[in-house]
Amino acid sequence: MFLLVFIIITGYLLGKITVMTFSFGSSAVIFIALIFGYFGYQLPTDFQTLGLVLFIYSIGIQAGPGFLSSFRANGVALSIGAGVIVVSGFAASLLCSWFFGFNESICAGLFTGALTSTPGLAVAVEMVTGTHVAAAYGLTYTFGVIGVIVFVKVVSRIMQVDVVVEENKIADELRKSHRPMTFRHIEVTNPNLFGKCIKEIFLDKIAPVTITRLLRAGEKEPVLVDGETVLMKGDHLRVVGLEENLSSIMLYIGKKIEGEIEFNSVLKKRRISVTKKEILGKTLGSLNLREIFNVQVSRITRNGMDIPAQANMRVNMGDIFHVVGQDKTLNNVQKYLGNNISELYTVNVISIFTGILAGFVIGQIPLTIPGLGILKLGVTGGVLVAGLVLSALKKTGVVIWFVPSATNSLIRDIGLYLFLAVIGTTAGSTIVSTIKEFGMPLLISGIIVTLFPLIVSSFVCTKILKISFLRMLGVLTGGMTSTPGLAAATTISNTPYASTAYATVYPVALIGMILCTKLIVFLI
């Protein structure tokens, strides 16, 4: 325990050292661990498994809510980028084996080690005999880990990338796909609408907008609008929605007017956060806020983005409802929705461990692929899938899978440090003996098989697939199934773009490496 804590603290301090804006960050832990491992100090491998599952589960929890939308948006391109890594590594392994005369054991160990694929190693061990697979894996794995870390750290300099500019570019892209809500004041001039109820004019068939206020001609105080509200000539309406939808609806209702439609002391606006666990996953329409409390929800803010208040949208923890109504009714709505900020930072420990347990079970489910036999996702793949699925579900019965971002960051960092410390001491203890036994050809091959796919995929991602730099980092580390590499990527930018891309391509890379490992043994 003393050694574990000492390595983590020393590596953390080393990672804080910055030379010309370059630092190793949390990845420095593995370099300290390598030194201790070389001198014979070892840490229990159980810490490695614990750290691995904590880190990967936190990644799944973080990426889960946006995983499906991300995959729909650019998942095909990301997966192609990861596939390029696997295929390039496969080709490089075969070429090196042909040039240096490696047998199938050395080639399989070279491929799985250089691309840091433990599931691939397990497949290779099952298919071939002898210890050469594990030895080749141990030698090439060391540079596989370090090479990805260093490459991720220096690629921004090589490509002359301004990280802040890249962050803003993706943020602008997201803003375009999640355009901000606004409002427009419209006077009712369409005679076809005079004397009709709101529910009879079928606004939702034209555009997803919400009428929140109505000011009658000659009146001073606006009223809330519901489906039974009757429109009259000269009514002034406040309509909330996206700019282009407001333009469409204005042509239907009437003409744009200037000025403000303000409530007096009777009706007020309030931002209310959803923290009640009982209503998570319910649709906005099923809450019946208008009918029960006589209030109007104009829009909802989720993850910093304003979205229309549609009846079929499901409620998430932390959603901010923009509600208009009387003071007393707003207080009741506040109690109904929660608005308890402390709940957003409360952690359900049992749900975290239950999710990890589910990941272990998923990882052991046999997947039969014709011609290749039975494959398993393993601990890493199973835990990642569990995190992705459960965080997307948000709630199952009485169990809340939501994990506050601050807590998730803590889990991720603890898991990462444990993993790096153990894997460093393990690799350090065998690095010299493996080099002596298999010589420099294997070491050189490992460097080639690690760097060649990274270089090729970087070119394909940026020049052909037009993937943004920060997402490319997730593709590179996910394509290499490199947890330490992802850790290095997260030190470059605090945004979740790399992690989301990592989670998107990881299953593709995992299965691809297993299939290629089997193919290497078959071909050689």
Give structural attributes.
five-stranded antiparallel β-sheet, four-stranded antiparallel β-sheet, 524 residues, alpha+beta
Q: How would you characterize the overall build of this protein?
A:
By secondary structure, this protein is α+β, with helices and mostly antiparallel strands. 61% of the residues lie in helices and 11% in strands. The protein has a five-stranded antiparallel sheet, covered by helices on one side. A four-stranded antiparallel sheet has the order 6-9-7-8. The longest helix has 60 residues, at 405-464. The radius of gyration is 28 Å and the shape is elongated. The mean pLDDT is 80.
List low-pLDDT spans: none
Number of helices: 18
Spatial strand order of the main sheet: 3-2-4-1-5
Number of strands: 13
Helix content: 55-70%
* Largest sheet geometry: 5 strands, antiparallel
| Mean pLDDT rating | 80
Detail the topology: elements first, then pairings:
Elements: H1 2-16, H2 28-38, H3 45-100, H4 104-114, H5 118-127, H6 132-158, H7 163-177, E1 182-188, H8 203-206, E2 210-215, E3 223-224, E4 236-241, H9 243-253, E5 254-256, E6 267-273, H10 284-287, H11 289-293, E7 296-302, E8 305-308, E9 320-326, H12 327-337, H13 349-363, E10 367-369, E11 373-375, H14 378-393, E12 395-396, E13 399-400, H15 405-464, H16 469-479, H17 483-492, H18 497-523
Antiparallel strand pairs: 1-4, 1-5, 2-3, 2-4, 6-9, 7-8, 7-9, 10-11, 12-13
